[in-house]
């Protein structure tokens, strides 16, 4: 059998145990498609290249393994840029492959001709063009190594058409083996000892962990460390579930007080970006002593002074910390954690006045509460939007790692449906629900067609308040109640749009209809959209931090 360059691409992906590739068709990728199908790799063809990359990112977050997207040259790569940038800023291991013009067409202004590398270099860990057919597998192996080593991130390779169509002598081709290590960088033992001493001496210690826990597979050792030390812990939003939200030492709801009052804080696998207010006062106690563990040395000390920095893998360093804690017989009575947990029930009781409200339009707190009461414990939830994200953050708990996905540090909307599709492919037996605003649905709503064609039964709940909620309420707070330019939407029948794409769909207008509608959607056996008519006038009970300091809300 003759082997072509396109065959080597598929063979290299198979060697990486790639199960699914997200793509949008076009020249010169058809040969790769043929080869991938022969290798047993599933193709999910999408409606927009941005969604292909976001699906690969959702798949990666749900599995802890790299996701793969394949796009066409020129506009296909341009459409993928937003998704690639999101992977870059959210540190997600995604490999993006692309076709490219024939090399003899370079600099001729040919159809689709574009220098992809100049565009993608700032938002990838590594990017390259393959110029020799026998090196295709080598370049793919480099992409996977770059995407998964150290701080994860996206890697990109493009293949000129003549390289893909070239006949390859397999005996002369480079087929790398053992090109990635599973070794983990351990922390400096002396610094581990010092960290344990600092935590043991603290009166109000705190652990703040981020997605680095998930990428290193450290959730089990993290929970063991938390239970051994009895130190309260707070996740960043995308890391929720690594320690279950209902664990006695998990204090997500009390995070503001925990950050403001703790005297020693261990940051592990968590970047000090805007999600953590850059680690700075007033959110954090300016007198607190700090320990930061990160696999990327350049992250330690970013944005705030760090008293003790440890470079290392989260799982490896947590193993060291736990061993040292037990060796020295350190003890913590857990009173600080108990103190933080006490107000949580009071907050929940306060929210119950809205969570049980019969009002119409349905208030978003009631919607989120009903979803939380319905979902299985291991359900995967993607949340897409502005205001609905802030309600869901507090009302819908997470109990397993990789089961909560939201826009992350970029604030990118449109992620919900693609993430959900990627997650459902990774875990077909688990419930996967996307909760999104009506504005966010409009960005990648056509991917419900992708879900329908490929029989991927996700459930999408649209909080339809016919506006961009955070923006509209911000305008009202700043400029007055009538100054809401550019923030109104139509009360669109998103359920009917879904039905037109062979999905299940229905509109929900009363609170007591929410649970029965969820039951029907999940039992439909096909992708589903619930169009829930919700209250736009949320100023009196908003949970959005962007709105709290506005004149209208003080």
Task: Give me a quick take on this structure.
By secondary structure, the protein is α/β, with parallel strands linked by helices.
What would you say this structure looks like, in words?
By secondary structure, the chain is α/β, with parallel strands linked by helices. The protein folds into 3 domains: 5-164, Rossmann fold (3-Layer(aba) Sandwich); 189-339, Rossmann fold (3-Layer(aba) Sandwich); 356-553, 3-Layer(aba) Sandwich (Rossmann fold). It is built from 21 helices and 17 strands. Helix 21 (514-522) links the parallel strand 16 (504-508) and strand 17. The protein is globular, with a radius of gyration of 24 Å. It starts with a helix and ends in a 21-residue tail after the last strand.
Layout of helices and strands:
Blueprint: H1 5-15, E1 20-23, H2 30-38, E2 42-45, H3 49-63, E3 67-71, H4 75-89, E4 94-100, H5 116-120, E5 126-129, H6 136-148, E6 155-160, H7 161-164, H8 189-201, E7 205-209, H9 212-215, H10 219-229, E8 233-235, H11 255-261, E9 264-268, E10 289-294, E11 308-311, H12 314-328, H13 335-355, H14 364-374, E12 380-384, H15 387-395, E13 404-405, H16 416-426, E14 432-437, H17 438-444, H18 447-453, E15 459-464, H19 469-479, H20 494-500, E16 504-508, H21 514-522, E17 528-533
Parallel strand pairs: 1-2, 1-3, 3-4, 4-6, 5-6, 7-8, 7-9, 9-10, 10-11, 12-13, 12-14, 14-15, 15-17, 16-17
